[in-house]
Amino acid sequence: MRLSPSPRLRAMLRRMPALNLYSIGELLLLAVLAIQCARLFWTIVTPVGPLGDWRLAQPGMGGSPAAILRGFDPFFRVSGAQGGTTAVTSLQLTLFGTRIDDATGQSSAIIAGPDGVQNSIGLGQEIVPGVRLKAVAFDHVTIDRGGKAEELYIDQSGGPAPAATVAAPVASAPGAVPQGAVPVAPPPPPVGSAADGKLPGVNASQLKSDIGFTPRIDGGRITGLVVRSQGNGAAFRTIGLKDGDVVTAAGGRAITGPADLDRVFSGLTAGSSISITVERNGQTLALTTTIRGQ
User: Fold this and answer.
1) Order of strands across the sheet that contains 108-112
2) Residues 49-61: pLDDT tens digits?
3) From the CA atom positions of the chain, what is the Rg in Å?
């Protein structure tokens, strides 16, 4: 049995366009567009339900305040920045002061070696053979000793000298010793004459061992060396210096750094004299002493 379409069905089929690749693509696009329109309509008409117990997050800290303060270094030490603990150096070095210049990267430190001579050391410069200055902080420096970082701190162990007890004066006869007091013989007069400005002689080695020098920096330049007594201070007292005096010239030449004093000391011989100019309380004084020997 063979079925044949009716004339009406044949007329409808002839009016339909022929299917090709482009018509199939158009039909697919129309189907996708219809699906998206349905989804949009469903989103608009569907009510929004509750999302649960939603609250605004409160600001907080990750840990207790005490733990945060213990882990914070207000002085930004180098060891803390590197995340480890750096050992204190065992070398015979003494740190007297630091100068931090982060703007130009020309920080420096005043360091004395085993000989006690102070020198201004810049970053990357050699302090002693095999040891270089690596970093500078406000109270310590970090040195590179054969690839190992070590720290050197400013010596702050010295405290103020105890105050002397002075007994109240008691009226007595001239020359009498107060009751309970121990008579003390007056010190012998110094050898030499202070009238001509020449004080007793000293050894050349005493000049380095009994006097400490710290550069005075003014406007980025060294304008003198601040002196202080060290060791037994014999040469310091013999020359007539006082703590805080600023040596501005030695041997007739202006002082611009510790190297100037080294040149003056190296040229001293037994019997020669050395003249220095110091500033004390706004006044300029000239002192002269004789070298007894090495």
Assistant:
1) 94-99, 108-112, 118-122
2) 655 566 666 666 6
3) 44
